[in-house]
Amino acid sequence: MILEPAESDASSDQQRVDAIVAQGPSGAFAVAGLAVAIVMAIWLAFYVFVYLARGGD
Description:
Blueprint: H1 10-22, H2 26-51
């Protein structure tokens, strides 16, 4: 049996959405920053351990 949620006030739902959006996308920025840091670390490790180790002219 499927129960549908009780009718709620649309203005209270909108206020909740506005409060969430006001906090901003900090989690998305954190994930993007972490991904960039990982890519840079891999690039630096490649540069040091492969390119410079071979004489890197």
